[in-house]
Amino acid sequence: MSKALDALSRHLGEVVFSVLPSIPYAQKDKDGCSGVAVAAKELSAAARPDGPIAFHAATFEIPCGCRTALIGPNGSGKSTLLRVLAGLTPIHSGEARVAGESPRLGRSRIAYLGQRPHLTELFPLKLRRLIQMGTYAHHGWFEECQHGDEAIDLALARLGLTELAERPVHTLSGGQLQRALIARAVVQGAEILLLDEPYAALDQPSREIIDRFLFEQGHAFTVVMATHDPADLGRFDRILEMRDGTVVTRHACSGHDHRHA
Amino acid sequence: MTIAMLDLLTQPLAEPFFVRALIAIALCGATCACLGAYVVLRRMAFVSTALTHSILPGVIGAILLGFSPYLGALAAALLTAAGAAWLASRRGTSEDSAVGVMLSVMFAAGVALMQQANSWRDFAGLLFGSVLSVGGDDLAVIGATAALVLFGLRALHKELELASFDEEYAALLGARPALMRVVLLVLVALGSVACVRLVGALLTTALFVIPAATGVLLGRTLPQVMAWGAGCALLGGVSGLYLSYYAPAVPSGAGIVLCCALPYLGARLFAPRR
Predict the structure, then answer these.
(1) Domain for residue A201, yes or no?
(2) A92 vs B2, residue with greater confidence
(3) In this complex, how many residue pairs, one in chain A and one in chain B, have their CB atoms less than 8 Å apart?
């Protein structure tokens, strides 16, 4: 009975999608990260549209494959800077380039993880479906995602989530959820990860899995991570410090593209 | 015994008006349950109440001016949605209070217009529904609206699901969560216009909220929630019709809503805790 219903609904779905054009969310990105992953010039922005400026005249460059720590006291603008780079908060003045283009909406090569993910509570969704959402970046309007299963399995395995694949999302712990969101970024094919204190609410096992993923993958990603943990900093290639309302580069990585090193 | 019961079930089916009502409530119930899944999960129950109530001035205005009542209803519902969005677009008015303002203003306008039309009795059907008087042309409107809404839900399923679950990620991918909210409001407006003939402006909200709330208790994925909700709406709708057929003291709209509430109560008491 349920199989017949399933087949019927799939068939009806095919009818719907066969009459509609498929339109990508955003124009296709060019291939690969070349040279500079993230650059800002005289950048300033506010956390809220009518709020005070969070930082001003920030100028820095982050090469491809460089793992960058973003440090500074609470309220210094770390979160706002990451949201600006993700295209979620508008720029007040100046310029930001991410993968060579302005950080507008619809960039499939960027993944952003906020401090607390704003997910709708008790939404009926299984973990596998959450991770499948990453493949939407390669689809568009009026298109069904039926493939991508291999990529999803691989991402599940890499982040130690294989056994949880069929679990409802709202039963996951904070650490498991954070790993799931990183897995979604992997499935999305993101090259630039913008992470806002990803360790803030993690248990030790989750932390180790994410650590291994970010720091032992041979510079597969450009990482910009806001962090409060001074013990952490040794592992980063570059440290950006937010101080007195602007950004100071404390320690630059060698400047060439790490992935080709 | 069983034959007597079968007779009780089949006897009304000989009446064309009853068959028309059955088809109408099945179409509307299933459509509103699917749409209602988003209404419930996104906590839009209050907005949907405002849209359904605001149909009142739309229909009466259309009748006074000589338009199709369905067009008037749709225009009024869309006006309410747009008005609430505009009121809430400035800081100082929360969306909640903006919706409350629009709801009461539109409903008051409806009451004032009723006085103009000088006949309260004719509008009782508008307020409380009269599913047993659904005609062939009503059925055509209901069928077309249901098809349009279900088509829209299917075509935008992954975007609506994504925007409802994780608005920020939808924005990051360029899947336009704000636009998806507008799409949902328009679909709810369409759905309420189709239902108002069946259960009335005051009770249409129930068809969006009660079956979908049952679905949320029972389903583990969004399609499951919609399927459970649609099943509950069909069960409640059909039994409500039979109830009002055999107990004429119970108006059909009220009977349908009460019968929809029973599965919800059952699910609330007996569904496994999640």
Answers:
(1) yes
(2) A92
(3) 95
Cβ within 8 Å of residue B171, ≥6 positions away: A87, A88, A105, B177
Residue A227 belongs to some domain of the structure: yes
For an interface test with B, the pick among A19, A22, A142, A184 (most B C-beta atoms closer than 10 Å) comes out as A142
- Fold category of B17-270 in CATH: ABC transporter involved in vitamin B12 uptake, BtuC (1.10.3470)
SS3 state at B183: helix
A124, B164 in Cβ contact below 8 A?
no
Write down the pLDDT at residue B274. 62
Total domain count, chain A: 1
Chain A positions touching B220 (Cβ under 8 A) are 124, 126, 168
| pLDDT tops 60 at residue A260 | no
* pLDDT confidence band for B248 (50 / 70 / 90): confident
Partner A contacted by B216 (CB < 8 A) = yes
Q: Over 60: is that where the pLDDT of A257 sits?
A: no
Q: What is the sign of the dihedral through the CA atoms of B74, B109, B128 and B115?
A: negative
Q: Between B156, B158, B173, which is nearest A106 by CB?
A: B173
Mind telling me how many Å the CA of B79 is from chain A's nearest CA? 27
The domain limits of chain B are: 17-270
pLDDT > 90 fraction of chain A, expressed in percent and rounded: 8
Contact assignment for A133 to B166 by CB distance below 8 Å: yes
Complex ipTM value: 0.85
The answer as to whether A105 is a domain residue is yes
CATH number at residue A84: 3.40.50.300
Q: Angle at Cα B169 formed by Cα B167 and Cα B175, nearest 5°?
A: 80
Q: Which of A:32-51 have CB within 8 Å of B?
A: 50
What are the tens digits of pLDDT across the range B77-90? 999 988 888 888 87
